[in-house]
Design goal:
Blueprint (H helix, E strand, L loop, with lengths): L4 H22 L9 H34 L17 H28 L5 E3 L5 H6 L3 H9 L9 H8 L15 E8 L2 E6 L4 E3 L2 E4 L3 E8 L4 E5 L4 E5 L3 E8 L4 E7 L11 E7 L1 H24 L7 H11 L6 H5 L2
Helix pairs in contact: 2-3, 5-7, 6-7
Length: 331
């Protein structure tokens, strides 16, 4: 029996597909799973891939069987008998895909809900960061330097405020998540820790600690994407979105904007630093001390008239923001 070349091509394609799937599943082609949520996403992906492979093999198997069984034979020039009107078969091939799609939808809904993706709140006001950045530098310095209970002015209070951040517990003894306010703007990520008021350009979190990100955009739609965490969430102007994650591996992971947001979209990157609780507390305290020193310098030049760009330049440099981005903030 001579097998047509098209059948050989199909068989070779199936073999290559199966070999590729085996290689991809056993040779770590995906980024490492560095969070609890990554396991959920990977399990969902594997379930969808398994269903897709099953459907592919069934459909291709039927096609190959039909092509071989009902192929044209030598000397047979007649058409085959017409077959139509098989209502049970039509119901079957309609109901089965509908059930599969419904099952995957429910599974996806559950996973997305577990990472907080469905926690949407309309009418959210823009972060205070935007208002602060549109205020003159001298006014900010004067306001902060005159705050009587500013913990940055007292090392003892500072140590108490920063030690154990992210380890607070409620009355029932259940650990509360570390809340971080995230502001996205062309073309930078800004993170505010409400417990201390610290503003930084990279996200630091303690390993093994649940983190809740409250995100909003100041201009256009952005997307918060950390491949190793399997997290990708749109950040929308005027609409707060939330996402939760718990990191499991100490390290530094790239944070990328996954939504085209302007001509410099490609440079809108930062990093997520996962560290031990002790290292996190030390970083937080060092950032507070550095902020106090910067404020003291600002107060020393309070009598000078500085533009907003001139005042914010040292802060944006420390946060990894290019100076030309400041012009975007004032628009």
């Amino acid at each position: 029996m001579k097998i047509p070349s098209t059948i050989w091509t199909l068989l070779i394609g199936i073999v290559l597909t199966l070999v590729s799937l085996w290689y991809g599943q056993n040779h770590g082609l995906l980024p490492i799973a560095a969070s609890d949520e990554a396991v959920l996403i990977d399990d969902l992906f594997n379930a969808m891939l398994t269903v897709s492979i099953g459907i592919f093999l069934i459909v291709e198997g039927v096609l190959i069987y039909s092509a071989l069984k009902y192929r044209r034979r030598a000397g047979d020039n007649e058409d085959g008998p017409p077959i139509d009107g098989n209502v049970p078969l039509e119901i079957l091939w309609t109901a089965i895909p509908a059930i599969i799609v419904l099952g995957i939808s429910v599974y996806s809904f559950d996973v997305y809900n577990q990472i907080g993706g469905l926690s949407l709140h309309g009418g959210h006001e823009m972060p205070m960061m935007e208002e602060a950045m549109s205020t003159s530098g001298t006014a900010i310095a004067a306001t902060l330097s005159n705050t009587p209970e500013n913990p940055e002015q007292n090392p003892v209070i500072l140590a108490e405020a920063t030690s154990g951040i992210g380890t607070s517990e409620d009355i029932a003894g259940k650990s509360q998540p570390l809340v971080v306010e995230v502001a996205a703007l062309q073309y930078a990520w800004l993170f505010t820790y409400p417990d201390t008021g610290l503003l930084t350009g990279e996200l630091h979190v303690p390993v093994g600690k649940e983190v809740q990100l409250n995100m909003t955009a100041n201009d256009v739609i952005h997307a918060f994407w950390v491949p190793e965490f399997r997290l990708k969430q749109d950040v929308i102007p005027g609409q707060e979105t939330k996402v939760n994650f718990t990191s499991r591996k100490v390290g530094q992971y790239p944070l990328i904007c996954a939504e085209l947001c302007g001509p410099y979209h490609g440079v809108m990157q930062s990093r997520v630093v996962v560290e031990s609780q002790a290292d996190f507390d030390g970083w937080m305290q060092s950032q507070q001390v550095a902020a106090k020193e910067d404020l003291n310098k600002a107060v020393a030049v309070n009598s000078q008239e500085l533009s907003a760009d001139e005042f914010l330049a040292p802060y944006t440099h420390n946060m990894g923001i290019h100076s030309e981005m400041l012009h975007q903030v004032h628009r």
